[in-house]
Amino acid sequence: MSENINGHTNIYGVLGYPARHSFSPMIHNFLFKKYSINSVYLAFEIRPENFKNCISCFKMLQFKGFNVTMPFKEEIIHYLDDISKEAKIIGSVNTVIKKGKTYRGFNTDIIGFMKSLEEKNFDFKNNCALVLGAGGAARSTVLGLINKNINKLYIFNRTRSKAIELVKLFKTYSDKEIIIFDSLDALSDKKLKNIGLIVNCTSVGMSGLDNPKDMLVPEKWDLKDKFIFEMIYNPIETKLILKAKSDKALIINGIDMLINQALSSFEIWNGFYPDKKELVKYFKNSIK
Ligand code: NAP
């Protein structure tokens, strides 16, 4: 948040339902202050039936930009003048910028996901990945992995028809075969051995849901030396992360991705990529 809020302060925010739990205000207000940018970032918890009116208000109030989170990442597209190529492919926008009189949408979840893997030197070309889930986060993940030419791509989703829809969507974009698993319990040891990356793109394990202590990965799986990417950041230590730790896996958690996607949103709005180190230090101290 800018140190001196005045008549020229620009408003940014995250629009979701729920939204109050979001860490984005903490991240962006830290960056606005650090770079002396006269802006403020707030959380707007908006009931789905009020979404359309809320967007009209944002436009009327000349918001410079905003993030959109669950459940609005698809619906927001109807209210934008233009969206990026990646956002178009996966049909999901999480970052909006006002450019002159128009509003443009991007999806920085894709960049956030990829950056988090690149920072850990993940070898895309020589690895097979298993994506759990078939929602918006899974579409971002699959697009990122295809763009990096992942060796082999597997997907599992509770509702098989949605996994089939995802596979169909990507058939129009790439030749990469996406293989659907019907069950995780039945997976052979040989197949599991070949999987170097498992990404949880479901909400299983998230706080506030019925069974936050759950995980989709079978307890009997040995995750040693595999990359385990947990998208959930609340709680920070999900059941999957705890298992990954005890199996000596290589872990990437939802906070890594959250910070990386936020840095990319900041870049879209402000035209430069902020320093990550200080933000991470501040963030880790703030959520202790
Ligand atoms: P979404 O579009 O609503 O998709 C939810 C996915 O979770 C679906 O595949 C759904 O399967 C599955 N699922 C939900 N409950 C389940 C259960 N009890 N058993 C098995 N599968 C279940 O949500 P999303 O936007 O993709 O987000 C998914 C998760 O990623 C959320 O926890 C979100 O917070 C997190 N995320 C994190 C970041 C980050 O920056 N760290 C960014 C984006 C998303 P069905 O199709 O069978 O319903």
Give the number of domains.
2
Ligand identities = NADP nicotinamide-adenine-dinucleotide phosphate
* Main pleated-sheet profile: 6 strands, mixed
Task: Find the CATH topology of the largest domain.
Answer: Rossmann fold
Number of helices: 10
Would you count the extended β strands for me?
12
In the predicted model, the low-confidence regions spanning at least 5 consecutive residues are none
Task: Give an overview of the whole structure.
This protein has 288 residues and is of the alpha/beta class. It is built from ten helices and twelve strands. It has helices spanning 24-34, 51-60, 85-90, 108-118, 136-147, 160-171, 189-194, 239-247, 254-270, 276-286; strands spanning 10-16, 39-45, 65-68, 82-83, 95-99, 102-106, 128-132, 152-156, 178-180, 195-200, 227-230, 250-252. The chain has a six-stranded mixed beta sheet. It has a six-stranded parallel beta sheet with strand order 9-8-7-10-11-12, with helices on both faces. Helix 1 (24-34) packs across helix 9 (254-270) and helix 4 crosses helix 9. The radius of gyration is 19 Å and the shape is globular. The mean pLDDT is 94. Bound molecules: NADP nicotinamide-adenine-dinucleotide phosphate. NADP nicotinamide-adenine-dinucleotide phosphate is lined by residues 70, 109, 112, 133-138, 157-159, 162, 201-204, 206, 231-233, 254, 257-258, 261.
